Amino acid sequence: MARALLSSIITLGAKLVAATRSSGSVEALEDDMNWTMSTLKGIQATLRDAEEREIREESVKLWLKELREVAYAAEDVLDDCHYEVMRAKVEARTAAVADPSKKNRRFGEVCVDLEALHLQEEEAQVTDFVAKDSLRKRKIVQVGSSSSEGKEEVIELLLSDHDSASNISTIVIVGKGGLGKTTLTNLVYNDPRVRQSFDRTGWACVSEFFDVRRLTKAMIESISHGSCPLTELSTLQGNLMNLVRGKRVLIVLDDVWNEQHSDWELLQAPLLCAKVAKILVTTRNDAVAVIMQTLPTYRLGYLPEHQCWALFQHYAFGGMDCVDQCNLEKIGKEIVSKCGGLPLAVKSLASLLRFEVDEDCWTEILESEEWQSYVDNETFVALRISYHRMPPYLKPCFRFCSMFPKNYQLSKKQLIQLWIAQGYIQSDSRKTMEEIGNEYVDELMRRSFIDHMSDHSTFYGEDDSAYKMHDLIHDLGGLMSEKEHYAMVDAEMSDLSDEVHHVFVKNNVETVLSGNLTDLRTLILTTDDSKIIHLDDLAKAQCLRALELEVHFLKLPNSIGNLKHLRYLFLLHYEQKSLPPSICLLYNLQILVLAYCHQLVDLPESIGNLNNLRHLTIAFSSIGRLPESICQLSNLQKLPEGPLIYMNYQKDLETLLTYGT
Q1: CATH class for the region spanning 470-660
Q2: How much is the pLDDT for 196?
Q3: Nearest to residue 279, comparing CAs of 165, 200, 183?
Q4: 8 A C-beta contact, residue 496 and residue 512
Q5: Does the predicted TM-score (pTM) go above 0.85?
Q6: How far is Cα 107 from Cα 571, in angstroms, rounded to an integer?
Q7: Which of 338, 396, 489, 544 could be bridged to 1 by S-S, CB 3.0 to 4.6 A?
Q8: For the stretch 426-457, what's the b/e string if a residue is b when 16 or more beta carbons lie within 10 angstroms of its beta carbon?
């Protein structure tokens, strides 16, 4: 992450020096800025070697962590200076630009550390990964799978009538991580025979944190296909009882780890009202099967080697037989044998090798020391190998995804905008940052690090796509991020570590707001209820680049204008008629989303000061007209169109699109 971050810093610094030269207002700053830029380039040149050594040398990890923190501090210093230049332009006067000399001393300390480590100082090269399909003959290979056999067995268990004293029957699918338990369960769940046999169906993702209230709520929302505002367990259970009473019900509980029988009994209690309730559970834990099952356990076996090879061919060769590359086929089969019959391991490495036709690269993966690192965990080894061979520009984007909870559906548009806010996407003379972000998402999908789930429209009418990460890939992202990313769902926490920089919080948001916010760069707050949240503590989050408030709040504090690093601001359910004028001091702001702010009737007159604004989304508000200064937003990409905005300022939109594109 540090290399990508420093690339962003260097780009920003170059712009700042150019800006100071053109304005003629900060000549004294140039020497300091140029020295800082030179130092950062030196740090950047060492990181490629450092990241390679991180795989094998634990001692380097501590140094990299410190380097990352210094890089963050450097970015803040340069950003402060850049902010002052922008402020000076807005106010049409000479700015007193902040002096970075104090931070420069810290950069000097890092230079001493660089010499002590004797790391290679060579320019990092970004490899373009291109699939060489020209080397492959167009002979289609069919992908074999044992899922169809397993599917029929599980369906037979589900649909059979069993003599039991209870109306609730539980089938447990047990298997190692990466075997395809969730895939098999999906096939069963969506089979027409199964759908026709049940009146109500629901799916809840469990993972490590088995919270009865959260899971009951998830079952309600899945069965009813809508959100549930209830928060108390007793009322949630009553609601679920009403939904299932006298019905035939199928519930899937995916990825269960909890071994407490009392929690299990409490969770299934509302299902006693159903006529018939079948529960399908997936787990890696044999003890869970013993506790939960009432019907025979289905143990998912390893994929046979010939089917693993077919799967490998499908992803590595695009479904075509590589008849002209006998050596690659030989090496590929040896790699497959190391994957231990685990489909996710095969898929991960095959997706990586789709971009490689060099025999040495294939051999390097076959002989990687990583295979000795995690005994009896072939899937995680394969994922680590794939990660370490990911292009440097893509790694921070992947790690950022681990800040969201497991099984969270990632919005493509939201993800790209958050990446832009963090500086992970650099502008290109040929492409917009949004276009580059789309390519990054597509590349993560091609490498099998994320899976496409669906295409849909956003609440403001634009096309979007949803993606998910496999649990093991999410675990990998968390491991590689070194505690920088954190997700809290229904969890109490006294304070955040200063190592955490990106946080997703669902419910109990007051706990986070009252704690340490100083080092946060991303803060996403969501809640299931309509409780009013007070945001005065946001003033502590001086380093924020991205802030998303999907909560009910009466007032946005005027101190929001002090968050001068902010690039992304998403406000949902804002309950005031106007935004605080200080929001127009956020000169770095690139994305502003105002959704379901029904009370909002106008925007600040100085909104045109936000010259870096790329996206302004207004959905379901009471805004009647846009301020005239809106036409100063020359970087704006587009505005929402159609019935989601009030048509009585359509003329303003036409003017803006004329001047701003």
Answers
A1: alpha beta
A2: 94
A3: 200
A4: yes
A5: no
A6: 37
A7: 396
A8: eeeeeeebeebbbebbebbbbbbbbeeeeeee
